[in-house]
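Postdoc handover notes: sequence design on the structure in folder B. Input tokens:
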């Protein structure tokens, strides 16, 4: 498949044409001749910028958007989320993930990392959407050895099945957290990941209670406990990382793991702390940004999470120069987290993953500093067109099948969210 984009405004470089072949950008210039068989797309002066990388979410939880808001975390889980999740089918998860993918496309997210139930439903939804994703079947074994064996069997099965999907889908291991996965299962995850060279995603130090329990049960804070088990290395992704001490930050830096901050979800659930960008940055720890699930955000628009990430760091540090716009943009587009495979650049040789953004609008005028406008003023509504692997997924804000997706999710959400 070849794609020729004309009249695209590339920041710093100016108006130019972009040629795409076999899913990659093969040429950029002010005067390129379109191949005779190429699909043509007139950008009409819109900005051509890299898409976002949503480093942590639970996509199908769009089904629970607004269901049990403004409740304490454990009450929310025990009376709303867990009972509803027990009623989920694979088709429910498929449609919930389709809705998440639709929302992410409409707000410029082109790659995401997910952890949820019913892996085949999630994977099918991603395939049909056209996005890129790092996916895994959540592992929890609080009920004992029988549940642990079932999780391991399912992981092995889904790993084999994942080989049949396109290269846009990356299979990962997703143990939920150190307080929901046994020591033996975490060791199994370590060994399986090493054997197959897989990424591992896990929640870490989201609440003070988690830290206190880790100290009580293991005599170590969460990050050091993971390290003791051999699960702190460059292919490990740590979601949240709010309550870490200096020794843990040092160990994460030494091992090369990636941290993903989820500021909106953390504030909404009142986790009692703020992720420290400064502690991560001074140690050159890879950093990504995530929305978490729509049940605890409640949106998947990375523009709003990016702005809040920057603002909350300034507030926490009492320093308006903390986390400037250029760095916030780099984090949100994956440039600071190589593990996700996105460079945050629109350049020859890079995957043809980018969005066309309407920037000549009142809300982004004037343009003293384009990236500042992106971080502090823009929103997902200005994303006009989205391209992933050279395929146009949205043009002029229309995505194929969006009416059917919304209809199906409304029907299924009413069933699973019974109280």
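Designed sequence:
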């Amino acid at each position: 498949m070849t794609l020729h984009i004309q009249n695209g405004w590339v920041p710093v470089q100016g108006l130019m044409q972009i040629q795409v072949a076999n899913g990659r950008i093969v040429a950029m210039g002010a005067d390129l001749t379109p191949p005779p068989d190429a699909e043509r797309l007139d950008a009409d002066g819109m900005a051509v910028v890299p898409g976002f990388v949503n480093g942590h979410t639970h996509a199908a939880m769009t089904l629970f958007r607004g269901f049990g808001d403004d409740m304490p975390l454990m009450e929310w889980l025990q009376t709303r989320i867990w009972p509803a999740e027990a009623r989920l089918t694979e088709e429910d998860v498929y449609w919930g993930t389709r809705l998440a993918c639709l929302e992410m496309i409409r707000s410029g997210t082109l790659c995401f990392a997910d952890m949820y139930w019913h892996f085949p439903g999630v994977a099918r939804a991603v395939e049909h959407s056209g996005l890129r994703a790092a996916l895994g079947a959540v592992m929890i074994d609080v009920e004992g050895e029988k549940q642990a064996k079932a999780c391991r069997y399912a992981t092995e099965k889904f790993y084999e099945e994942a080989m049949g999907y396109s290269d846009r889908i990356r299979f990962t291991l997703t143990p939920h957290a150190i307080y929901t996965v046994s020591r033996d299962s975490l060791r199994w995850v370590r060994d399986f990941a090493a054997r197959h060279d897989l990424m591992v995603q896990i929640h870490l130090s989201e609440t003070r209670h988690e830290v206190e329990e880790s100290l009580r049960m293991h005599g170590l804070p969460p990050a050091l406990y993971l390290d003791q088990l051999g699960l702190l290395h460059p292919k490990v992704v740590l979601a949240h990382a709010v309550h870490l001490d200096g020794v843990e930050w040092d160990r994460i830096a030494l091992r090369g793991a990636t941290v993903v901050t989820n500021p909106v979800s953390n504030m909404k659930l009142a986790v009692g702390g703020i992720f420290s960008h400064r502690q991560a940055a001074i140690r050159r720890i890879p950093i990504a940004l995530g929305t978490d699930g729509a049940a605890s955000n409640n949106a998947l628009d990375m523009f709003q999470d990016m702005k809040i990430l920057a603002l909350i760091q300034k507030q926490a540090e009492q320093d308006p120069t903390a986390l400037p716009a250029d760095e916030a943009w780099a984090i949100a587009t994956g440039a600071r987290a190589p593990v996700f495979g996105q460079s945050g650049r629109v350049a020859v040789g890079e995957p043809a993953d980018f969005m066309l953004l309407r920037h000549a609008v009142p809300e982004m005028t004037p343009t003293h500093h384009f990236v500042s406008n992106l971080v502090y003023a823009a929103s997902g509504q200005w994303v006009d067109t989205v391209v992933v692997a050279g395929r146009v997924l949205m043009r002029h804000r229309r995505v194929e099948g969006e009416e059917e997706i919304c209809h199906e999710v409304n029907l299924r959400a009413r069933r699973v969210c019974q109280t």
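Context for whoever picks this up: The two ends are 49 Å apart (CA to CA). Don't rerun without checking with the PI first.
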